[in-house]
Amino acid sequence: MSAESIQAPQSDDDVVVRLTDVHKAFGSKQILRGVSFELLRGRCLGIMGGSGTGKSVTLRHIIGLMRPDQGKVEVMGRDLAEVTREELQEMRKRIGYVFQEGALINWLTVAENLALPLQENTKLSKSEIESKVQEKLALVHIPDAGAKFPSEISGGMKKRVGLARALITDPELILYDEPNAGLDPEISRSINHLMREVSETLNVTSLVVEHRIECIKTVADEVIFLYDGKVHVHAPVDEFFHSQDSVLKGFLGI
Amino acid sequence: MPCAALDSLPKDAWIIALALVLAYLLWQRKFFRDFCDETAGRLLLLAAVLMRLHHLPRRMRWFKSQMFSAGIGNVHVVLLVGLFIGMILAMQTGVELARFGQQDQLGFLVSTSMAREMGPFVTAIILAATFGSALAAELGTMSVSDELTALEVLSVDRVSFLVLPRVLALMVMCPMLTIFCDAVGILGGGFISVAQLNVSWGMYWDTAFSALQTKAQFIPIPKDVYAGLFKSFIFGGLIAIVSCSAGMAAQGGALGVGRATSRAVRDSIIATIIANYFLTWMIYS
User: Which of A153, A198, A239, B98 has the most CB atoms around it within 10 Å of its CB?
Assistant: First the structure.
């Protein structure tokens, strides 16, 4: 593993996500075999790796949907093994999650999808919620999509709505699960630029699971390559794509 | 002598003994353990719904839309099936009664059978096959497309948001549809009585209504009607809980949704039949 050029945290407060020796198995299949890394405040970390190497599993550990068999997952300074269900729910309000297929509720309009977490978890008035929904739709460049149902919009728009929904609670951390999956290159480019724009505008910390090189080059500050259930390479984005590691070169096809 | 000893056993002891033997035999098998796990999960879901009853005012929009789907969406099926059930009942019993010259009592038989048993049961079966399967398919699709996970990540209470309005809607609509089923069933019985068994309308209605006059002890409505509606209320809750639980547990794409849907219908019908026995025993014993 190469991690020489990775920025070191000034203090523990700078670390938004820290995984320490995380192991996870499903039945007899060992997926993670000691994954460790840190994600610093304001940075964007890309996670690359072949299919079944545990990229999405890592993401699900960070949001608390899975518990590690061994090791520690710390998010915003809290060890997830020690938080109660209520505390985890509170923490999730500060984390945005963009799903691979959008995961929008089909029988709610786009605006209702965005409003849902605010209606359920805040005491904001109807007009405040409406203005916040409109603000986020404008941020992802689809201000007129509010009245449409998810079945009436394209795959690219669904990704934008998914991102807007993840941003609705003004999170400190956004997790992207394959944001380019199922999109053509042109739409993928526009989504990548939007992610970069959101990251810079709102100064949020981001973690992107993706295997498209273009996406990682556009959005990430540093990249992790998962191989054999471990962090095989962890490097700033420029170094990552010029790495001499043979396994990584084989994966990237360079 | 042994026969005499057996005869002296209380009636319910047979049922308990049979249930225990059956339970022991089935305990050895994996499917029975899975069944116990599923039942425990469903009881927990029911408890979670009961603990969130005070959320209902916030869920009124979804509660009303589910009532509409369950009620208006199925009323034509209930009316059609109920009519034919009443006609079949009249025909089957009427032919036998006519042999003893007792066809005048047909209204009594059809109305008590519809109100006590056939109305609630037939309505429950229809709702399990239509609304219950739709519930399981809808929640199953949400489960396999990560929508349920999304709700969890967004800190939205899934039981309150999805299950509560569906369970309560079916608990309200099942008795309502039962009333329609009872009414058209009795009407259908009347058609057959007049057309095929030479019973006058007046005689049929007199006996039909007199059969439903027995008042319940504490409730000022006829006992048979009240008993049927109470059963329906329970059946509605059972069907919704079983269907929601099967749907939310769906995994593995379209195949998983299909399995969840068929499991929901199968288990709803089994639960309805078992509950029907115990409710009948409780009300009429």
Answer: A198
